[in-house]
Amino acid sequence: MARSLCPGAWLRKPCYLQVGRWCRPRLGRPPRGTRPPPRRGPRHPHLAAPRRSRRRGPSGFAGTAPPSAARGRGGTWGDPAPSPRVLPSARVPASVGEGRWRVTHGAAGRCVITMARSLCPGAWLRKPCYLQARFSYVRMKYLFFSWLVVFVGSWIIYVQYSTYTELCRGKDCKKIICDKYKTGVIDGPACNSLCVTETLYFGKCLSTKPNNQMYLGIWDNLPGVVKCQMEQALHLDFGAELEPRKEVVLFDKPTRGTTVQKFKEMVYSLFKAKLGDQGNLSELVNLILTVADGDKDGQVSLGEAKSAWALLQLNEFLLMVILQDKEHTPKLMGFCGDLYVMESIEYTSLYGISLPWVIELFIPSGFRRSMDQLFTPSWPRKAKIAIGLLEFVEDVFHGPYGNFLMCDTSAKNLGYNDKYDLKMVDMRKIVPETNLKELIKDRHCESDLDCVYGTDCRTSCDQNTMRCTSEVIQPNLAKACQLLKDYLLRGAPNEIREELEKQLYSCIALKVTANQMEMEHSLILNNLKTLLWKKISYTNDS
């Protein structure tokens, strides 16, 4: 039917196209050794290029015989090559079920293709439908993963925001303190500014635990750090805060009718339990009464006494009073109940950069530590900060009121001011040695891991009695040197690097149980300070 509709199809013989083979009609076998006729017209783009045969013909050169002749297949070479003006050809199936394609030229090819299109309209829909289905699948896949990422990210942000709102409850803290102040239960120099004139503001939240609120604040245009206690610790758990807070929250001591002398006896008994039987505890009691007199009228009111008693339960407040004349202890600015304000610290971490908590979520801890080491002052300034830490260790080691133990010497608890002088940011984990020994001894244990307070105060476990011993294994100086090792060795000058590393490792190896520990402690501390001072004494950064 196609030939009757398209008479031009009878002008040429059908030609079969095989991939990589000659296009020839099936008429007969060509003589052996004959060469194909040369093409005088343009090669049709649908015809495959001839491939030379590796067999030699009779004339002695390779590639003369076509592949079919080389294999001995029958047939003769086709008609002469078409003239230069050749109608475009088309490839259509020779017959139904035949695996080869027949090349037709001119009107016949166009007619057959047109008829095939009209007879098989669904052939044009198969490929577009396949592509459309494929695009729909890809689109759905990306849409699903996009929604999954949005859902997981929203959940993480919600959890972190809930944690943030639990850690930072400045409004609740202010409400509790002001309610106690307005009812006359407590009093202090910061109460009027916090609850009446409202000139004491809460700024950036620095809290790490819900029951210990810490904020950057402003008091009468002076920057400071505000700390507030929210909850009580019902158990003396070594993973939680050491001091029981029941009396602090209720403000039930001293009671109405208590005289000043009776209050002094209460404070003296508290100091004896915390610091041991020191000979100069009476001087410390008088110092506390001076601090408790917030309005400086020479008398301590009942509200001021309750506030002072609540604050004395906190080791940090007690240490600030004891070391108030030392350079590296922040100064106390005022208090109200168990809320107190101390001087501001420009840099609240030993090293690192402050980032928003949303960005902190996506930074791995290992990369965060490496990044913190990059954001540090120059080495002479780091050496000056390190000297300040060594001097603070010397202040709390066998001070005027006993020895204090540093149970958390992490970088986040240390800071410095604009002159690069060390300032302690958080001293809640610096506890009196006598108090810690009384609480940790006879504690049931299975191994040495059960005899730990904070992160750095460790004792040993007696396997015979299954109780913790009272002697702390590592002194404060060894903990400080462990913190300063990476801090000082990074970027240290080559001329002192070897000696500095040697002294730091000797310091880290220091043990409390070693013979003549106090002498070694003083010797190593003085050697480190001397080495650092010699290097930075004549630099501008110091």
Q: What is the CATH top level name of the largest domain? A: Mainly Alpha
Averaged pLDDT: 75
Question: What percent of residues adopt helix (DSSP H or I)?
Answer: 40-55%
What Rg, in angstroms, do the CA atoms define?
Answer: 45 Å
Q: What is the first-to-last residue Cα distance?
A: 104 Å
Which shape, going by the Cα principal axes? Answer: globular
**Unreliable stretches:** 1-27, 52-120, 122-127, 232-249
The profile of the biggest β sheet is: 5 strands, antiparallel
Measured by DSSP, the beta-strand proportion falls in 5-15%
SS-derived structural category: alpha+beta
- For the record, the CATH architecture of the largest domain stands as Orthogonal Bundle
- Secondary structure tally: strands: 16
Q: Provide the CATH topology of the largest domain.
A: Transferase(Phosphotransferase), domain 1
**Strands across the major sheet, in which order?**
4-5-6-8-7
Number of helices: 18
Query: What count of domains describes the coordinates?
Result: 3
Biased composition (Basic residues): 37-57
Domain FAM69 N-terminal: 133-291
Region (Disordered): 26-89
Membrane topology: Single-pass type II membrane protein
Description:
There is one protein chain. The chain has 542 residues and is of the alpha+beta class. The protein has three domains: 120 residues, no CATH class; 177 residues, no CATH class; 192 residues, Transferase(Phosphotransferase), domain 1 (Orthogonal Bundle). The chain is built from 18 helices and 16 strands. The strands form six sheets. A five-stranded antiparallel sheet has the order 4-5-6-8-7. Helix 9 packs across helix 10, helix 14 runs antiparallel to helix 18 and helix 17 packs antiparallel against helix 18. The longest helix is centred in the N-terminal third of the chain and has 45 residues. The N terminus is likely disordered.
